[in-house]
């Protein structure tokens, strides 16, 4: 059996902005960005271009997303980025933590040259692990 595993993230109205940010800062490649043809009645009026389905590839992993009313930030799941150098970990930490929430600051640990846990300004939770 062959089986694929992708990640799907719901955003409260800023999927397109988040994916463009990930494309720019993480070197991702947006593969699809499909807005709703007609905005559903239960969506907030200020959502002028909600995303029905989006897809971005980051580091060989596919992340899919959409705009969903009342979507909440990720809680118990983290996307783990594995930068190859401490300097790259520091750069990622700087850009992803800006206007976000830091759970564990970037530092050297017994298991990593650099490790951090944070949630970015879009509600996506990240671990940075430079082994």
From TrEMBL:
<dbReference type="InterPro" id="IPR004360">
    <property type="entry name" value="Glyas_Fos-R_dOase_dom"/>
</dbReference>
<dbReference type="Pfam" id="PF00903">
    <property type="entry name" value="Glyoxalase"/>
</dbReference>
<dbReference type="InterPro" id="IPR029068">
    <property type="entry name" value="Glyas_Bleomycin-R_OHBP_Dase"/>
</dbReference>
<protein>
    <submittedName>
        <fullName>PhnB protein</fullName>
    </submittedName>
</protein>
<dbReference type="InterPro" id="IPR028973">
    <property type="entry name" value="PhnB-like"/>
</dbReference>
<feature type="domain" description="Glyoxalase/fosfomycin resistance/dioxygenase">
    <location>
        <begin position="13"/>
        <end position="127"/>
    </location>
</feature>
């Amino acid at each position: 059996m062959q089986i694929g595993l992708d990640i799907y993230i719901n955003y409260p109205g800023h999927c397109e902005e988040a994916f463009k940010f990930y494309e720019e800062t993480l070197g991702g490649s947006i593969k699809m960005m499909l807005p709703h043809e007609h905005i559903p009645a239960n969506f907030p009026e200020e959502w002028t271009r909600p995303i029905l389905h989006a897809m971005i590839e980051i580091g060989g992993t596919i992340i899919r997303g959409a705009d969903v009313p009342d979507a909440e930030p990720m809680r118990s799941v983290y996307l783990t980025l594995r930068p190859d150098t401490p300097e790259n970990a520091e750069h990622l930490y700087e850009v992803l933590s800006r206007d976000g929430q830091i759970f564990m600051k970037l530092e050297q640990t017994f298991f990593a040259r650099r490790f951090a846990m944070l949630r970015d300004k879009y509600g996506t939770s990240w671990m940075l692990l430079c082994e």
